[in-house]
Amino acid sequence: MQQTDYIIELAGHKKxxxxxxxxxxxxxxxxxxxxxxxxxxxxxxxMNLFLGLNVDKDDPLVRFCTNCYRCTSxxxxxxxxxxxVRGLRENLSTGSVFEHAIIExxxxxxxxxxxxxxxxxxxxxxxDGWARHMFRMMEYVINIVRSIxxxxxxxxx
Amino acid sequence: MDYSYYPGCSLKGSASSLDRDVxxxxxxxxxxxxxIPDWNCxxxxxxxxxxxxxxxxxxxxKIEDGPCEIIAPCPACYKNLxxxxxxxxxxxxxxxxxxxxxxxxxxxxSLKVKHDLKGMLFTPxxxxxxxxxxxxxxxxxxxxxxxxxxxxxxxxGEKVRDKCCGASRLFASKMVxxxxxKLLLEQSKGIxxxxxxxxxxxxxxxxxxxxxxxLTDLLLYVMGEKKFL
Lengths: 157, 229
What we know:
Low-confidence stretches of chain A: none
Shape of chain B: globular
Number of domains of chain A: 2
Number of helices of chain A: 11
Oligomer: heterodimer
Radius of gyration of chain B: 17 Å
Number of helices of chain B: 8
């Protein structure tokens, strides 16, 4: 299956849903990624997908979209661009070690088991300069320790 | 009144204090929260696959004979459950509610106030998912402001209330979250009040000395269940 069809299907859209895009670029004018002084244009991404062109890992939205839905909220057709970006990330396997650990945890136990996620991603967390934030993170570490339990095994769907 | 309760993964771990406080407030209001048996993760904002709405659909199915009103305090879980409830036809009519949707002036007036918020300045911060997309957003988009001013607190941060702190990229691209959170902190004043466990983590991480609290902390302080904010 072509990347476009696969992603649009993942995001729960039909290709025709994207054809309603008017090209007004209001999505670009409100996009959070532009607050980072990075040029992002959701409308261009939609257009590329609609034309069947491949979007790569370096697209600013694939790298930085924060799922804030400001674009959806501003869009005259309420197109859920963040859902499409999530589909793209899944398709291009762009997730960080941390995100992979979360998905692994859900696949094994049916829930996110935080002790596993943090152990699995500890090297990534240390490398990414998290050590200097450890003091501010203590509240969350304490919460995890206080609520520690054996992973719950959810019955498979 | 009895409600079905979907805590979600964060509230069972890094945000367990929020879980404890939500249960306490509901208990004080005379409501029962019945945790959905054997619930699975809703996929939050990490899962990109087709399974996303299926996960929440199964969670709703697991309620069976339980109450039809589902309380989900985590905004990402709330959105996913609401999407699933909209996309599938269940035999029973379920309603997905965020705790904020239960508050109105009548309920606030019925609370026993031990401390008021006079002279205190707050920035109510909703983040993204509670307010967007429109079809899954909470009904009253100014409820936190109404709660704070009802107890005589002062409000700031109109500019930042619905901006993004970048929390969903916290463990994928720290630079994004750091820049966005610092931008919000610069543009706001006073204590930051949130209801999202991820926004709490992102704002607290980069806030240095600014206080970041859950709205539940504020309510329990007002009711005299907490001594300090």
